[in-house]
Amino acid sequence: MNELIQKAKSLLESDTVQVVIGYGKGSADKTRAIFLTKPEDCDQLLFDSRCVQNLAVYLTKHEIKHLGKPAIVAPIPVLRSILQLAVENQLKESDLVILGVSPESKLIEFDSFGAIELFLNAYKIQIDEKYKATIDKIKAMPVSERFAFWIKELEPCFKCYACRAACPLCYCPKCTVENNQPQWIPAASHLLGNLEWHVMRAMHLAGRCTDCEACYNACPMGIPIHLLTKSMLQDVEEHFGPYGPSVGKRNTLSSFNPDDKESFIR
Amino acid sequence: MQIDNYLIRQTSLEKLFNNLIGNGKTVFAPQASEKRILFEKVKAFSEITDNYLVTTNAAKSVVFPRTEKLFSYKKTKETTEITDASTEAVPEVVLWGTRPCDAAAFIPLTDTFNGDYPDILYNNRRGKVYLLSFSCATCDEYCFCTSVNGSPGNTAGSDILFTKLSTGDYLAEVITEKGKKLVAENQTLFEAAPEEEKEPNLAKVKTYFNQDEIQAKLQNLFENPVWDEKSRACLGCGSCAFVCPVCSCFDIQDEKHGSKGTRLRCWDSCGFSLFTLHTSGHNPRETQGARWRQRILHKFLYMPDKSKVAGCVGCGRCSRVCPADINILETVTSI
User: Is the pLDDT reported for residue B231 higher than 80?
Assistant: First the structure.
C-alpha cells in the first residue's frame, strides 16, 4: 500500500499526471472512487477486498478527462477493461499511467498495453462455477419457463441505467436508448421496455464484456443481469475460443476472418 | 386534527391486515428477497417482513407509477378517438409498513402535483391511499430525518402510526379522517390507549444540520466548487432519483403502433445527460456537477422556497444505493 501511495505522490509531484484515480474510504464500511490532485492527499489511498468498483469507467468520462492526465489504480478487472478500451481505440498508452495491483496487493507498473496483456495471460477470464451452475439451470429451462424467469427478474427494473453507467465499456456519448427519432428502444420501464433494454445491453457487450460484474454491483434492485453477459462469454468461448482482450486483435463479433469455420461468411 | 391514541395487540395486527384484504383493499407492504426489500402487493400477512430499516424502493410508485398512461388514441379516416386515462377507476390501496419519512414524503410530492394545476391522475390515486406507518426503532448512518424536520416517530403524512412498545404490542396514533374511518371499521381491534410512553421506543437519529440554515446558505451558493468536488465520482445514472420518495421529474413518451397509440409519463432523473437537453443541442446542465447542484438546490432551496416543505425527508435511500457512494448528507453538511 505504501508503495502505491509513494508512487502516486511522486507522479503528482513531478506533474507526470494531474489526477490519481484510486480507492479511498467511503460511507459506512464502503470504499469509493477518489480523485486526487494534490500529492499530500495521496495518503487517502487504500486497497482491500471492498474495492470492487471498476475505476476504468472514469477514463472516458468528460468530467474526469477535464482534470488532466490520470494515473489509475488498477486491480485485474480494471486492467482487463483498460486493455479492452485500448482494443477499441478509446485509450492510447500516452493517455494514462497504470498503477497495477496484483492479487497479492503488490504494485505493478506497466509501460505498455502489451505488458498488461502479458500479465493478464496468467489471469484468464473464467466464469465462476456457481454462476456456471445457475446459467446451466436457466439454459436447461423450456423456452416458456426461461422467458417467465427473465420477465420476473427484470420486472423491478425502473431503468435508472446504473448498469450502463457503471460499465467501463458503455462509453458511447449517445446510447441507443437515447435515440428518440426514431425511438429504437421504448423509454418506458414496462415489460417490453425492460426486456428490450436488457437484451440490447447484453448484445452490445457480446464479445467485449470482460466479466467485471460492475453492472450487477451497481444495480440498486440486485437484478442478476450479469448472468446475461456471462452466458454470452460462454457462447463466445464455445464458438470462437477463449475470450480476452488482445492488442492488435479486433473484437470477436466485429472482426472478419477469411479462414472462418462457418462457410456462409465467404 | 386531534390525534386519537389506542393500543393494538401484536396479534390484532394480523387481524387488521386480513380485514383490509377482506374489504377489497389492495395492500402494498415490505417484502424481503435476497438482495432487496421492496414495497410489493401482498395477499397474506406472512409475506410481510418487519425486519427492515427502510425499503430499497420508495412507496411513491403507488401514486406516481414509473410508467403511467395519460391517454390512448385511435385514428380512423374521419376522426381521432381519445380515451382519457384519468377517468379510469383506481383501487383503494393500503400502504402498510411505511416509515415516518416515507409518509412525510407524500406532503412535498402532493404539493408538486398540485402546483400550477391539480394533476387528476395523481390526486385520484393519492385520494385512495391509506398510509399505515410504523415508527423506527433503529436507524443507520444514512438516516437524517431529524435534520429535515422529521423524526423516527413523526406522524405527519400518515393516517395511522404504529409504534412498537416494550410489551410487543403497539401504540396506534390515529391522525386523519381516513385513519379514523379504518379504526371505526375495526373497532374491536383497537383498545384503550397504553400508558407506556412512545419516545423511549424510538430510534435516536442524530441531527446533522438545520434545514432553514441550509436553505439560507444555498441562496448564494450557485457558483461553488463543492458541486464538482462532491459529484466527481458520479456515474450519471438515475438510481438516486428513482429510489427517492420525493423526486417526481418525469418525461413524456408516445408509443404508437400504426394508427393507435398511448402517451405515457415515465420517471426521469436529473442525473441523466438528456435531462433538460434543449432541442438546439445546448444543455444548461452540461456536467454531473451541474446536475448534482440541481438535485441539491431543488430539494433544499427551490422546494422549501415554493411550498414551505423541503424536497428531502432524510431517508438516506439515495446514498445507500449510489453505485459511486455519493452521499447526500455529506454534501449538505459540507456546505
Answer: yes
CB B311 within 8 A of CB B246: yes
Which domain-ending residue is among A102, A120, A138?
A120
Q: Where are the domains of chain B?
A: 4-60+73-333
Among B67, B269, B288, the residue with its CB nearest the CB of A189 is B67
Strands B93-98 vs A97-101: parallel, antiparallel or unpaired = unpaired
The answer to whether the CB of B109 falls within 8 A of the CB of B60 is yes
Residues A147 and A111 grouped into a single domain? no
User: How close B155 comes to chain A (CA, Å)?
Assistant: 28
- According to DSSP, residue B61 is labeled G
Q: Are residues A228 and A160 in the same domain?
A: yes
**SS3 assignment, position B90:** coil
By the CB < 8 Å criterion, does B142 face chain A? yes
Q: What's the predicted TM-score (pTM) here?
A: 0.95
Name the minimum distance, in Å, from the CA of A61 to any CA of chain B: 8
Contact residues for B203 (Cβ-Cβ < 8 A; gap 6+): B136, B137, B138, B139, B143, B152
Q: Which amino acid appears at position B168 of this protein? A: G
**A63 and A173 both lie in a single domain:** no
Q: Are residues A86 and A195 in the same domain?
A: no
| Dist. CA B69–CA B266, nearest whole Å | 9
Which of A31, A35, A158 lies at the smallest CB-CB distance from B267? A158
Among A175-189, A227-241, B160-174, B215-229, name the one with the lowest average pLDDT: A175-189
> Between chains, do A220 and B251 touch, taking CB under 8 Å as contact?
no
Domain identity same for A78 and A175: no
Q: How far is B236 from chain A (nearest CA, A)?
A: 6
Residue A1 has what pLDDT? 77
End-to-end CA distance of chain A: 53
In contact, A102 and A77? CB cutoff 8 Å: no
Number of domains in chain A: 2
Interfacial B residues in 26-55 facing A (CB < 8 Å):
33-36, 38
Task: Tell me which chain A residues have a C-beta less than 8 angstroms from the C-beta of B272.
Answer: 161
Q: For residue B225, give how far its alpha carbon lies from the nearest alpha carbon of chain A (Å).
A: 13
Residue type, B274: L
Q: How far apart are CA B30 and CA B55, in angstroms?
A: 7
Angle at A25 between CA A23 and CA A27, to 5 degrees: 125
Kindly determine whether residue A160 and residue B239, on different chains, have CB atoms separated by under 8 Å: yes
Contact B272 A161 (CB under 8 A): yes
Residue to test with chain B: of A27, A36, A51, most B Cβ within 10 A: A27
Strands B160-164 and B129-134 turn out to be parallel
Residues of chain A neighbouring B142 (CB-CB closer than 8 A): 27-28
DSSP 8-state class, residue B299 = I
Question: Containing domain of residue A15, as a range?
Answer: 2-120
Q: Based on the fold, state whether residues A171 and A248 are members of the same structural domain.
A: yes
Structure ipTM: 0.94
pLDDT of A10 reads 98
Regarding whether A135 and A114 lie in a shared domain, the answer is: no
